Amino acid sequence: MKKLTLFLGILLSFHFCYAQQFEFTPNYDESKVPQFKITNPLISFNGRKIKNTKRWEKVRRPELLNFFANNVYGKVPGELEISKWEVVEENANALNGKAHRKQVDIVFNKDGKTLFFNILMYLPNNKEKAPLFLGYNFYGNHAVCQDVKIRIPDTWARNNESYGISNNQFTEKSRGVRKDSWQVEKIIDSGYGLATIYYGEIDPDNNDFYNGIHPFFYVDGQQRPAANEWGAIAAWAWGLSRAMDYLEQDSDVDATKVIVFGHSRLGKTALWAGATDERFAGVISNNSGCGGAALSKRQYGETVGRINNAFPHWFARNFISYNKNEKALPIDQHGLLALIAPRPLYVASAEDDRWADPRGEFLAAYYATSVYELYGKKGIPSEEMPQVNQPLINTVAYHIRTGGHDVTAFDWEQYIKWADEQVVKNF
C-alpha cells in the first residue's frame, strides 16, 4: 500500500510539473500573438484625457505609479535611512592610473538587525565630478573587473560551476568572469564613472524572504510581504535609491547625472527604480523582457504566468491575478516606461533573445513616446523596428543587436553615445 501511495504521489507530481510546463510553453510565433487593445497612457482610468504635463503629473502619473506599486512590483512598507557609510578601500591610481577606485559599505540597522551592501566605484581621474552609470551585478563586484583589490562578497550566491561558484559561495575563481559585460575601461575612457553592487546583498535571489531587507519591515510575526507589498525587484530598486542617497553626498560624483542601468531581471529593476525615484537622470533597460520593457499582453516568449511560476518572489503576490489573464491589465508595460518621462530612457534588445520579446520591448517604448512628446522630447517615431545593429538614438532610444541574452561592448558603446547626447548635454 505504501509503495502504491508513493508511486501515485510521484505520478501526480510528474503530471503536475508536466502540466505546468505545457501551460506556460512560450509562444515564438507572431501569428499567435492575441488581439489586444493598447491602453492610451494619456487617458486616465476614469476616462479623462491628459493634454498637458501638469495633468500628467497631477492625475495620470500618480495613478499609474500606484497601480504598478500595488499590483505588479509591490509597495515598500516603510522607510529606512542609511545608518552609516564607510569607505573601506580606495586607490587613486586604479586601472593603470586612469581611475580612482572606491569600495564603500552602506550599513542599515533596525531593531537589532544589520544589513549592508558594498558599492564598488571607478571614477575617471581626469574629471572633478563625474557622471555615473549605476547598476547591479549578478556575480559579485569582483566579477566585473580583473582587479585583485576588489572584495569578494560572502553573501549567498546562486551556484554556477563555470564561474567558480559552489556551495552558494563566491570564490577567487569568479574574479573578472563578467568583465566583458561591464567594459569598465571603456566607460572610464569616455569620462563616466561606474558604480556597481552585488544585488544579492540587498535581497538574495531565492524564494524565502528571510535573509534580505524584507524582515526589517515585518510586524506582528509577519514572515513574508503582504499581497500588495514588495517582491525582490522592488527591494532591489529600493537598494538603488539608497545607493543614490550616498552618491548625492559623494564629492567625486555629479549626482545630477546618475544613469541607472540593468540587464535581464536587473533591467526590470532599473526601470522600476527609475519610475519610483526621479533623481535618476536616465534609465537603461537591457534585455529586460516580461515584467520589464516587454508588453505583457503580447504573450510572446516569457509570460506573466510563466515568470510568476518560476520566480514567485520577484513581484507582489497581487501580480498572480494576471497569470494567463493579461487582457485584464488596465495598463501594460508602456505605462511603466512612460513613468520615466521626461528623463532619457534606453530600451535594448537582442535578436536571438526571443524569450525577452524584442518586438514587445520596442513597442512599449513606442507607445510610451506620447508622454515624452508632452514634454517636447523625441521618442520612437513609428511602429517599424530599426534594423539590427542600427540604433535609434533619441530621448527614448532603442536598439536590437545581433546575439543573445547578454550585455556586450556594442551595447555599452550605444549607451555612452546616448548618455553624451541625451543626459550630459541636453537634459
TrEMBL record:
Entries under InterPro entries matching the protein:
AB_hydrolase_fold, GCE-like_dom
Cleavable signal peptide: 1-19
Q: Which organism encodes this protein?
A: Mariniphaga anaerophila
Q: Does the keyword tRNA processing apply?
A: no
Tell me where on the tree of life, at the top rank, the source sits: Bacteria
Name of the protein this chain belongs to = 4-O-methyl-glucuronoyl methylesterase-like domain-containing protein
| Classification via Pfam families | GCE_fung
The 4-O-methyl-glucuronoyl methylesterase-like domain extends over 197-376
Keyword terms of this UniProt record? Hydrolase, Serine esterase, Signal
What GO molecular function terms would the record report? carboxylic ester hydrolase activity
